[in-house]
Amino acid sequence: MTFKNNAQGGGRVRRGGGGGGMALGAGGGIGGLLLVGLFLLLGGNPEDLNQGAQQDPSQGAQGQQLENCSTGADANANAECRVDFTVKSLDAMWAKLLPAQAGIEYAEPGVTVFTNQTQTGCGGASSATGPFYCPNDQTAYFDVTFFEQIEQLGGSDAPLAQEYIVAHEVGHHIQNLEGTLGLSNYNDPGEDSAAVALETQADCYAGIWAHHAAQGEDALLEPITDDQLATAIETARAVGDDNIQQRSGGDVNPDTWTHGSSEDRQNAFMAGYQSGNMSSCDFLRRGNYRDA
Ligand SMILES: [Zn+2]
Question: How far is the CA of 44 from the centre of ligand 1 (A)?
């Protein structure tokens, strides 16, 4: 359990369509590219790999609201409701924090859950794609069956670990609002690349959420326990490039990294979690945040 059982909310997340007969064959859509090698796991910027046409930002808001996601107890029992409540909690935090610390007004991202496949502003996505944020329609996409797959990488499927992933993707939306997301270039990877800086920054932003999520009278979350925190760290480590390269049987080659090492990702999450401040996540060295 992470949410207060009597927390009220829901209605924030939409269900994506099945893609309307769209073919997701070899090479088609984001999923086809992913099969090349988990390259887009927790993908930062699929746009680089699949140039989608600019679309109306409201496109991602289409679809039905989730049913039976009205209380924290629903979010504790159901993974899609958990996404819904996590986004509601993220909205509340970023609406205060982003103007206060970065001088930028927060605009809510679209958030879509889907099963099997769906169409996005960045092309077709399938369950194999993994969660990602599409800047073209400013929408984060989740197939919650991914959360179970994370265990195969040594990560945790526990609620706070799932919430870390949701908060990471919304972190990319924050970067989009900051105007920095476009610096990510998977064609220019490496442990010192902008891509890694942006991915670890999204981990750090997820840590900021965990820092604030249980604070205040309106908090939707129960206080985070050490055991829960450990599950989020486990998952942050699991999606490290070195871990993924090892587990897929390849050599560990930092020159090809796009998301950072297990150590980097854990440290980034913890930096945000411990401080609660965007200045702790300034991996692009912009120097323009103020603690508040
Ligand atoms: Zn990412």
Answer: 4
Would you give the DSSP letter of residue 137?
A: T
Q: How confident is the model at residue 287 (pLDDT cuts 50, 70, 90)?
A: very high
Say what the pLDDT of residue 21 is.
42
Three-class SS state of 67: coil
Q: Ligand 1 centre from 70 Cα, in Å?
A: 28
Residue ranges of E strands in 63-203: 64-65, 110-113, 117-120, 123-126, 132-134, 139-142
Q: From CA 275, how far away is CA 237, in angstroms rounded?
A: 20
Token pair belonging to 71: 């209380």
User: 99 C-alpha to center of ligand 1: Å?
Assistant: 22
3-state secondary structure of 35: coil
Cα(172) to centroid of ligand 1, in Å? 7
For residue 162, the CA-to-ligand 1 centroid distance in Å is: 14
Reply yes or no on whether the pLDDT at 14 is more than 90: yes
Distance CA 113, CA 16 (A): 6
Which amino acid, 267?
N
Bridge partners of 64? 15
Q: How far is the CA of 196 from the centre of ligand 1 (A)?
A: 9
CA 114 to centroid of ligand 1, rounded, Å = 18
Contact 119, 193 (CB under 8 A): no
Q: How far is the CA of 217 from the centre of ligand 1 (A)?
A: 30
Q: What's the rounded Cα separation, in Å, for the pair 192 and 162? A: 27
Which stretch of DSSP H or E encloses residue 160? helix 159-178
| Residue 233 pLDDT greater than 80, yes or no | yes
Burial class (CB in 10 A: 0-12, 13-18, 19+), 226: exposed
For the chain, where are the E strands, in sequence order? 14-15, 64-65, 110-113, 117-120, 123-126, 132-134, 139-142
